[in-house]
Automatic annotation (TrEMBL):
InterPro entries registered for this protein in UniProt: ABC_transp_permease (IPR001851)
Subcellular location: Cell membrane
Topology term for the membrane: Multi-pass membrane protein
Transmembrane segments: 6-23, 35-54, 60-79, 86-111, 117-136, 157-175, 207-230, 236-254, 261-279, 285-305
Pfam family, one: BPD_transp_2
Stated name of the protein: ABC transporter permease
Organism encoding this protein: Promicromonospora kroppenstedtii
CDD domains: TM_PBP1_transp_AraH_like
Top-level taxon in the UniProt lineage: Bacteria
């Protein structure tokens, strides 16, 4: 393990220790459980965005896709707007819709040659449009006991949606570590031209990465609906920036080819611990966005400086 890989876990331990000293309430078991529960949705979103970052692309579609998924699942499970009661089928349909929107981002990238940040920003707008049409001016409140139970019922001290997030992180790591898609995602971000020259068709794997990312965003939208007890168009607001922050802080490079799911998961914990700790010590929530922005700049700078030194020509 390089120093760069060890940096985020060490920073997590240091930050946790500092806040534990500053606030007695921070180091309680109940607060640790709250931190893990609060990190659940962000962890699922970060799983998706990490694969996109590994390919060297940027994905800004999470807010729109999560909004479309949240409204869809709220209208398909038991709710106050209609007589639907599809349960897990409704969850599956919402995730499939999200995967389709993610696929649309990938197709716009590889077929129309639209830059990834513009393609995904457009898909986010499409998702928000779909969510607004389904919302129709009346908020759908869920009454499905299964979906409500994900946020309320606990297993080993943690909410069920937290265990779902753990399963997503494990699944993402398995795909990254043992599947061709995971290996090629790294290769696309590291040296796409070399991979193409070796005979690999890069385009289908890019589309597959964005499709999988969309599915993760869709599941995150379902989890937000479980937490809020209702489907909201703005269910995914701010999660794109938070997920990119967590991934970069954890060691996943914006330029691709380095990092991964476990790196990003550490970044999620670091960001969540920092947010929780700032609240515990009495820092205004209005400062938290600025702190996250400074962290992103510092993390990107720390990742770019070594590369810049390697690229320098010695006279």
């Amino acid at each position: 393990m390089s120093l760069r890989d060890a940096g985020p876990p060490i920073a997590l331990v240091v930050v946790f220790g500092i806040f534990a000293v500053l606030s007695p309430d921070f180091r309680t078991i109940s607060n640790v459980q709250n931190v893990l529960d609060a990190a659940a949705v962000l962890a699922v979103v970060t799983c998706g965005i990490s694969f996109v970052l590994m390919t060297g692309s940027i994905d800004l579609s999470a807010p729109g896709i999560m909004g479309a998924s949240a409204i869809t699942v709220a209208l398909l499970v038991a709710n106050n707007r209609n007589d639907n009661d599809l349960g897990l089928i409704g969850v599956a349909v919402a995730v499939l819709l999200a995967a389709a929107l993610g696929c649309l981002s990938g197709l716009a990238l590889v077929v129309l040659k639209v830059p990834s940040f513009m393609a995904t920003l457009g898909v986010s707008a499409v998702g928000l449009g779909v969510a607004t049409l389904l919302f129709a001016g009346v908020q759908p409140n869920i009454t499905d006991p299964m979906l409500e139970g994900w946020a309320v019922e606990r297993f080993l001290g943690l909410a069920r949606l937290t265990w779902i997030a753990v399963a997503c992180v494990l699944l993402g790591w398995l795909v990254q570590r043992y599947s061709r898609l995971g290996r090629y995602a790294f290769a696309i971000g590291g040296a796409e031209e070399v991979l193409a020259l070796s005979g690999v068709r890069v385009a289908p794997y890019k589309v597959a990465v964005f499709t999988m990312a969309g599915a993760f965003y869709g599941l995150a939208g379902v989890l937000v609906t479980s937490q809020l007890g209702a489907g909201l168009v703005q269910a995914g607001r701010g999660y794109d920036f938070s997920a990119i922050t967590a991934a970069v802080v954890g060691g996943t490079l914006l330029t691709g080819g380095r990092g991964g799911i476990l790196h990003s998961a550490v970044g999620v914990l670091l960001v969540t611990v920092l947010t929780n700790g700032l609240v515990q010590v009495g820092v205004s929530p209005y400062w938290q966005g600025g702190v996250q922005g400074l962290i992103v700049v510092a993390a990107v700078a720390a990742a770019v400086i070594p590369q810049r030194r390697r690229n320098q020509v010695t006279k």
